[in-house]
Amino acid sequence: MRSMKSSYPDPAMDRPRPEGRFVLVLGGANMDISGSTTQPLVLSDSNPGRIRCAPGGVARNVAENLARLGNTTRLLTAVGDDLYGRSLLDTTRHAGVDVRGCWVLAGETTSTYLSLHGPDGDMAVAVNDMGILECITPERLAPHAPWVHQAAALVVDCNLGAQALDWLFANHGATPVFVDAVSAFKCVRVLPWLANVHLLKVNRLEAQALCQFGIHDEAGIEQAAQCLHALGVEQVVLSLGERGVYWSDRNAGQGWHGALPCSVVNATGAGDALMAGLVHAFVAQQDLRASIPFALGCAALTLTSEQANHPGLSVTAVTQCMQNANPL
Q1: Using an 8 Å Cβ cutoff, are 308 and 55 in contact?
Q2: What pTM did the predictor assign?
Q3: Is-contact 111 32, C-beta < 8 A?
Q4: Nearest alpha-carbon partner for 117 in 58, 44, 39, 187
Q5: For residue 72, how many other CB atoms are within 10 A of its CB?
Q6: How many domains does the chain divide into?
Q7: Residue 307: inside a domain, yes or no?
Q8: Does residue 114 fall inside a structural domain?
């Protein structure tokens, strides 16, 4: 039996948050370590370059973005009782996220994502160590059932294991569930519960994995959205990088929306910002059609930051970004 420390200490939150309902986010929190070289990589040798270490993880990134947009946000994730784990929770708490429910597990290693990039910026290889997320079990989740029921929205990433997903979908009640597919490999974990998903955010490869057919053109993208609706998903947002997004609401139409122009500094985290924008707009009672431009604004602003979370993200900053992209 793995030992577990009590939940993370609850110092005063760094930012005031409005009273009332909150968004609950569950999934991965990683320490992202990336190495980059200015010369072509040489295998089996030491390569001079630059190494960066930064907070990451889909759920953690989404939670930070939601808090920066002014939402009362709670995060449930597991970290090790180690330097990376304490750093992740400190950073996330200082961004305004309530991390009291996070599990700090003695004897476990905090999730770590290690990537190596050549001079062109493309990733050459990566290793992820996320085994600790298997420690998020129904037994650990059960005491948080009141949070699940009371949340204005529940955001889940597919880093969670099958048992955790099974518990969440069996116990979410009337709380709308937003799912980030994470990757083509991991997204299939949510297949048994798609009928319980309010909104699913996928990219083309993830949609292919879920629908089990190739997507090669616009017609294929539209067909994939209809396939996901047939599997039970109420709303689909298919992220297409520079192309923007294709969105589809089973009961309220569909459409294309181009990405906002911006100077790209780092693509990491843009999808997480997109998801945060969608959830923020939903909590503000906007329909999917109206939420898409704001969510794309969140992604565009994040693309201009070296970090996976833009430190200046706010409703005002996103609105300004949207106005700059679409001047009168």
Answers
A1: yes
A2: 0.89
A3: no
A4: 39
A5: 21
A6: 1
A7: no
A8: yes
